[in-house]
């Protein structure tokens, strides 16, 4: 019955600490708005959250690529948190109640005491700085060679455009094989239709709400530019070629690790492993695994090993969650076709 339902429905040098990359993100203005700070206090100026047993509030959607990455970080580091589900399929991220938290209308976001932090990369740095008693994912004590290797893989994997890869594959079904939940055919059509309508929706909100206008108008322009790449097969294939180049580097590194218990760059599990794991998971559910690692046996072994890790399993939506969200999304799917 379940089966029937599925059918129906740039190198960094060793002297540059990865922290500095994140610190520069936090200390400069956000790329989308000169007036929007990615870290702010809900009340009071300059307050620093105390390290205690309180739980972080995490705003997320479980199918969001960057939400999954942050979930993985929190689970791996053992940091306590509670979740607030933002139904991005229904457009909840563009309601004023959420735009007041993140004017870009994006997840994930965390609220830690009185501090609000947006953008997964900035959140990860914030957590490293504020939760030092928990396990670290940055190999700062492992020597220059490992730091350099880690920073390189983190950067090249993190900089891949996950949204372009995801939505672009919906426009070019010939490049995928066997897409899996949640990205089965009805969902692919729905997400494609919704994405095309987002720029107009953002501009409409911006015309009515001056305090969000700058950020939302710039985001609308970015999505319009991304859509041009997604729809143009030649441009989209260039993006996939970039992914292919990164995964070839990964395969070559894993070949060097053969015969050891190393993860991607170290004996210890690092942020680069989280970057890689969430990328591989996304490519897998999109139906792109045969394209990218059918002939890369070490990536296959690595991914199979990763899927046994408890923190990974906790961070990836279950089949039950997929079915539940598909059922709840049917009205939105029908509306998207109108």
Structural notes for this entry:
By secondary structure, the chain is an alpha+beta fold. Helix content is 58%, strand content 6%. It has 15 helices and five strands. It has a five-stranded mixed β-sheet, with helices on one face. Helix 3 links the parallel strand 2 (56-60) and strand 3 (81-85). It is globular and about 60 Å long. It starts with a helix and ends with a helix. Mean pLDDT is 86; it is low at 1-19, 25-37, 41-52 and 333-338.
> Spans with pLDDT under 50 lasting ≥5 residues?
1-19, 25-37, 41-52, 333-338
How many H/I helical runs? Answer: 15
Rg estimate, integer Å: 20 Å
In angstroms, what separates the terminal alpha carbons? 29 Å
Spell out the helices and strands N to C: HHEEHEHEEHHHHHHHHHHH
By secondary-structure content and strand pairing, the structural class works out as alpha+beta
Helix content: 55-70%
């Amino acid at each position: 019955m379940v089966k029937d339902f599925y059918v129906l429905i740039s190198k960094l040098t060793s002297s540059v600490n990865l922290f500095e990359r994140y610190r520069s993100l936090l200390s400069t203005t956000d790329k989308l708005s000169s007036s929007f700070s990615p870290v702010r206090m809900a009340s009071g100026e300059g307050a620093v959250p105390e390290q205690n047993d309180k739980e972080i509030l995490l705003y997320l959607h479980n199918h969001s690529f960057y939400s999954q990455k942050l979930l993985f970080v929190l689970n791996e580091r053992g940091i306590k948190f509670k979740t607030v589900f933002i139904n991005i399929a229904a457009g909840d991220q563009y309601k004023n109640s959420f735009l007041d938290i993140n004017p870009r209308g994006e997840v994930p976001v965390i609220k830690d005491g009185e501090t609000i932090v947006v953008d997964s990369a900035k959140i990860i740095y914030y957590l490293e700085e504020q939760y030092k008693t928990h396990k670290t994912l940055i190999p700062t004590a492992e020597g220059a060679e490992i730091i350099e290797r880690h920073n390189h893989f983190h950067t090249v994997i993190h900089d891949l455009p996950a949204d372009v890869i995801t939505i672009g594959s919906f426009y070019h079904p010939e490049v995928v094989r066997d897409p899996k939940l949640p990205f089965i055919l009805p969902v692919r059509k729905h997400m494609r239709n919704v994405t095309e309508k987002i720029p107009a929706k953002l501009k409409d909100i911006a015309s009515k709400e001056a305090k969000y206008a700058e950020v939302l108008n710039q985001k609308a322009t970015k999505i319009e530019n991304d859509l041009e790449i997604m729809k143009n097969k030649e441009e989209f294939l260039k993006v996939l070629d970039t992914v292919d180049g990164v995964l070839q580097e990964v395969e070559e590194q894993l070949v060097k690790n053969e015969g050891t218990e190393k993860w991607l760059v170290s004996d210890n599990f690092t942020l680069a492993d989280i970057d890689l794991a969430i990328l591989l998971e996304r490519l897998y559910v999109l139906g792109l695994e045969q394209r990218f690692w059918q002939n890369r046996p070490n990536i296959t072994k690595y991914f199979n090993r990763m899927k046994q890790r408890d923190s990974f399993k906790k961070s990836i939506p279950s089949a039950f969650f997929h079915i539940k969200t598909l059922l709840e999304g049917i009205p939105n799917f029908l509306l998207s076709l109108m």
